[in-house]
Write a structure and sequence with these properties.
The complex is a heterodimer. Chain A is α+β, with helices and mostly antiparallel strands. Helices cover 36% and strands 24% of the residues of chain A. In chain A, helix 5 packs antiparallel against helix 8 and helix 10 runs antiparallel to helix 11. The mean pLDDT of chain B is 96. The chains are: A alpha+beta, B alpha+beta. The complex binds flavin-adenine dinucleotide and FE2/S2 (inorganic) cluster (2 copies).
Chain lengths: 286, 162
């Protein structure tokens, strides 16, 4: 339960961090909050030759609003996001979901960039950011690129990040004033990883549902949009009958895994139930 | 690879210096290099909370932080709470309300409680459960721990009123 030896670098400027990643990317790992990486090191499931600690790199931990977008620096701690008035008012779904991540001491250290780069299939942030249609700003010595969250997320902990690349920020469109959201998950104990969860964002078009983005996570290879459930409710008036249709469309569409914690069949049933709970949160017990 | 790093940090208000390999966790440096064995290690992967310390005033897992990362930072451990022979109100409440049996989880429970009461002086039972949910106790069944936190909150409130 002790980590293997590694060389330690603590760059104090972004360019230095990128230069180190350019030189050592293949056998180095970025150290952000360490709340996923250090357990892997302690179990010796990861043995990088070098850690590049980016906690001392300035400018990566701010939350700001500009041109209809909220930009959250990669090193912003989960606890900061949880308590940010800007996030609460502009991206309430993100604030609500953050309270489900681990426990306060985990959130003191864990970062949004680390959660995305780690891309745990049971993680709240990949799912919420997919529901919010976020963009991921990525930089390397080769330059900068911005990827849609859907293209960024790979299956089973993989992402589109190259070994020399750093997530710099996450950008969330604030979107319509007539938006509403729902977030529901079930874990064995509060703070454990989700057995299954649903993050959803909707817009209202008068008394009808406008746009719908419903994302399932936990027990699936990656955060996944439930497009059949979205199609079932778009343009319709929200009520319990419709929520039942969404439940059926969702359960028909996904095929979660069985493991030590739950069977795939239970997770499928649960996902349908959570879709209904998220819809009720968003539209009330219509 | 096994280069030693000199790390200067503040522990319980006092300047400290350790020479450590980069892979040494803050928990191990506190215990082995500084002799502060009040910080306990249960799981060494972030799950049990026994190793919780205050890092620049905020609760963190010292098993998931490397000692090199503490350079220039302030660490608060269980040893820093009492003033001489006088226990911190949270320590006294855990003793009075039987919030511990074997005591292994207690340092983490107490530091998490200190943090909770600093931000939320009169927490509800749900808030206590939320704040301590990441700390595992194998002995007490938690009920006495919750009563201890409530007792500490009451004692600290009346202490302030005096
Ligand atoms: C007890 C416990 C419970 C937890 N419960 C939950 C939970 O319920 N839900 C949840 O989602 N998470 C949970 N976590 C994980 C936690 O949220 C992590 O903080 C998060 O997954 C990773 O963020 P980090 O900043 O700690 O990243 P690190 O652990 O430092 O890094 C994780 C990975 O991402 C890479 N990386 C980090 N930052 C960047 C970057 N900017 N650019 C490129 N690569 C980068 C690292 O190289 C590493 O591979 C839990 C952790 C613990 C210990
Ligand atoms: S020893 Fe650190 S959380 Fe268990
Ligand atoms: S008192 Fe024994 S583990 Fe909590």
């Amino acid at each position: 339960m002790k980590p293997p030896s590694f060389a330690y670098e603590a760059p104090e400027a972004l360019d230095d961090a990128l230069a180190l990643l350019d030189r050592h990317g293949d056998d180095a790992k970025v150290l952000a909050g360490g709340q996923s990486l250090v357990p892997l090191l302690n179990f010796r499931l990861a043995r990088p030759a070098r850690l590049i600690d980016i906690n001392g790199v300035p400018g990566l931990a701010s939350i700001s609003e500009r041109d209809g977008t909220i930009s959250i620096g990669a090193m912003t701690r989960q606890r900061t996001i949880e308590t940010s008035p800007l996030v609460a008012s502009r991206a309430p779904l993100l604030a609500a979901a953050t309270r489900w991540i681990g426990h306060p001491p985990i959130r003191t250290r864990g970062t949004i960039g680390g959660s995305l780069a780690h891309n745990d299939p049971s993680g709240e942030y990949p799912a919420v950011l997919l529901a919010l249609d976020a963009q991921v700003r990525i930089r390397s010595q080769r330059g900068e690129r911005v990827l849609g969250i859907d293209a960024f997320l790979g299956e089973w902990l993989s992402t589109a990040l190259g070994p020399d690349e750093l997530v710099i920020a996450v950008e969330i469109p604030i979107g319509s004033k007539h938006a509403t959201y729902g977030f529901a998950e079930v874990a064995k104990r509060h703070g454990d990883f989700a057995l299954a969860g649903v993050a959803a964002r909707f817009t209202l078009d008068g008394s009808h549902i406008g746009d719908a983005r419903i994302v399932a996570f936990g027990g699936v290879a990656r955060a996944t949009r439930l497009t059949a459930a979205e199609d079932a409710i778009r343009g319709r008036v929200p009520n319990e009958t419709l929520f039942g249709e969404a439940n059926r469309a969702a359960t028909a569409a996904i095929d979660p895994i069985s493991d030590l914690h739950a069977t795939g069949e239970y997770r499928r049933h649960l996902t349908g139930v959570l879709v209904v709970r998220a819809l009720r949160q968003a539209f009330g017990e219509a | 690879m096994n280069t030693l790093h000199t790390v200067r940090l503040t522990v319980n208000g006092t300047a400290a210096e350790v020479m450590v390999e980069a892979r040494k966790t803050l928990a191990d440096a506190l215990r082995e290099d500084l002799g502060l064995t009040g910080t306990h290690l249960g799981c060494e992967h972030g799950v049990c909370g026994a190793c919780t310390v205050l890092f620049d005033g905020n609760p963190v897992r010292s098993c998931l932080l490397f000692a090199v990362q503490a350079a220039g930072h302030e660490v608060g451990t269980i040893e820093g709470l009492a003033r001489g022979d006088e226990l911190h109100p949270v320590q006294r409440a855990f003793s009075e309300f039987h919030g511990l049996q074997c005591g292994f989880c207690t340092p983490g429970m107490i530091l998490a409680t200190v943090d909770l009461l600093e931000h939320t002086p009169q927490p509800s039972e749900d808030e206590i459960k939320e704040a301590l949910g990441g700390n595992i106790c194998r002995c007490t069944g938690y009920q006495k721990i919750i009563e201890s936190v409530q007792g500490a909150a009451a004692a600290m409130a009346s202490g302030l009123a005096k």
